Amino acid sequence: MQGRVLLEVQGLKKYFPITSGFFRRTVGHVRAVDDVSFTIRQGETLGLVGESGCGKTTVGRCILRAIKPTAGKVYYHADNGAIDITALQDDSLRAMRRQMQLIFQDPYSSLNPRMTVREIVGEPLLIHGVKDRQERDARVRELLKQVGIRPEYMNRYPHAFSGGQRQRIGIARALALDPSFIVCDETVSALDVSIQAQILNLLQDLQEKLNLTYLFIAHDLSVVEHISDRVAVMYVGRIVEVADTVELFSNPRHPYTEALLAAVPRASATADKDEILLEGEVPDPANPPQGCHFHPRCKYATDICKRERPELSEVSGDSDHAAACHFASQLSLRGVS
Ligand code: SF4
Fold first, then answer.
1. Which domains are delineated in the chain?
2. How far, in Å, is the centroid of ligand 1 from the Cα of 283?
């Protein structure tokens, strides 16, 4: 997919201090995000995948400035130039937040049970200065229609809706301020499989109609495959592979991606693929292994893997495909078709 870059993340780091003792002295750091860089083009969906605790949610929260990064830059490329989101304060950060929204994982806990749908979806409008109630209600009706909820239900409370309907209400709320960029954080993970497909289709329809750009964070590769134009794979705070979705699934260049793909259910899956299912635990991000973080679990590891960190670099001749493995161009890895 071509197009101008909308979001650019450069060398993003987020370290959480580990404190100890009465004076809460810092004795170490959890490196939740450790030097992550990527871009997202306008109108594109970038999937961000990895096992639980790999740092993908922290990346999303840093981009939205829900938490302040330890280091690195996040640029939003507006029509009139690049805005460094990491440097914004107060009013300018508030204004920027209109452009960038989050759709939460859990539609049961993300909606306030004491508020009606009218209040939930209208709240961002109120906060951002739409004081006129009629104007707000008209916008709420329009948003509910857009996400497939009947506007006449706007005076109901969240408990009156199913999980899928609640997620639609969460999406309507995220759209209230006309954002251009949305972080979807495990947005369909809590839903039944049949409902997941409906919500993914809704997100795709809205993307097309409203020219939205998504960072789609998930642990489930089949979900990511369904919606993403490109996929970035994270492992212990770093991106280890990024490529066009079809390319990544059919021609993985990092052994961790190969192992994740082997776990994706396929009608044509062979017994062979079970042999590369991941073994061992994800390392502690407070004390990750030297060299390649994946080496204790990698069946292709050699001595250099234990000593030297592989950089994320272009895989033979494809500027859109990069992997962080010393042997990315040499290994014969198995994808899925
Ligand atoms: Fe495996 Fe070595 Fe590649 Fe890391 S650098 S993924 S340990 S082969």
1. 5-113+178-323 (3.40.50.300), 114-177 (no CATH)
2. 15
